[in-house]
């Protein structure tokens, strides 16, 4: 009887171990999955880190790509879907977050690109007006879907319309991994240079 019970417990333990999803990376106390499914494709966590403002943690961010890359040009040249996943680590007004996005775009983009992408930038900025604030634990995903555009979701709910141009999504990526990133250490984490 005891032997049968032990075998039952062992089988339960093995079943639980086999059904456990792939590891997750702990980033600022947030677990980011190693892989995600997007547009019927598996994306790998390229890198992740925490965005600080002064000494305060603002959000954890992960970059998901079809294959791991550690150079900006290689990331931008990748075909297929991509994802930025941002998990809020403190409450932030959508106005402040939108302002940070716009400052990042201005800092990381060439003037000609800013002019060419102005209408899409305005469209993206208007998404933040739909939500008064983001709270600790909120998840913002910014996805590139080939043939569809940039799609933003807050806690799984779509914000605004898709923004069509790949150049716009690449401009967003440059906020974090471009030549003039918001945070050079965070850039290194997202490009997988630091683990």
How would you characterize the overall build of this protein?
This protein is an alpha+beta fold. Helices cover 38% and strands 34% of the residues. The chain has one domain (22-190): Chalcone isomerase (3-Layer(bba) Sandwich). It is built from seven helices and eleven strands. The chain has a seven-stranded antiparallel sheet with strand order 3-4-5-6-9-10-11. Strands 1-2 form a two-stranded antiparallel sheet. Strand 9 and strand 10 form a beta hairpin. Helix 3 crosses helix 6.
Main sheet strand line-up = 3-4-5-6-9-10-11
Question: What order do the helices and strands follow?
Answer: HEEEEEHEEHHHEEEEHH
**Sheet having the most strands:** 7 strands, antiparallel
Total domain units? 1
Q: Assess the beta-strand content as a share of residues.
A: 25-35%
Total E-strand runs: 11
Mean residue pLDDT: 87
């Amino acid at each position: 009887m005891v032997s049968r019970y032990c075998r039952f417990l062992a089988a339960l333990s093995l079943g639980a171990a086999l059904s456990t999803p792939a590891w997750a990376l702990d980033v600022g106390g947030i677990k980011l999955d190693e892989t995600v499914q997007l547009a019927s494709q598996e994306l790998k966590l390229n890198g992740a880190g925490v965005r600080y403002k002064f000494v305060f943690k603002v959000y954890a961010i992960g970059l998901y790509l079809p294959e791991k890359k550690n150079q900006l040009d290689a990331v931008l040249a990748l075909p297929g879907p991509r994802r930025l996943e941002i998990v809020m680590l403190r409450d932030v007004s959508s106005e402040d977050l939108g302002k940070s996005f716009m400052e990042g775009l201005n800092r990381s983009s060439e003037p000609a690109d800013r002019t060419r992408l102005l209408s899409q930038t305005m469209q993206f900025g208007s998404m933040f007006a739909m939500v008064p604030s983001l709270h600790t634990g909120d998840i913002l995903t910014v996805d590139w879907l080939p043939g569809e555009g940039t799609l933003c979701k807050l806690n799984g709910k779509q914000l605004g319309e898709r923004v069509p141009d790949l150049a716009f999504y690449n401009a967003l990526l440059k906020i974090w991994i471009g030549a003039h990133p918001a945070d050079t250490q965070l850039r290194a984490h997202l490009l997988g240079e630091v683990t």
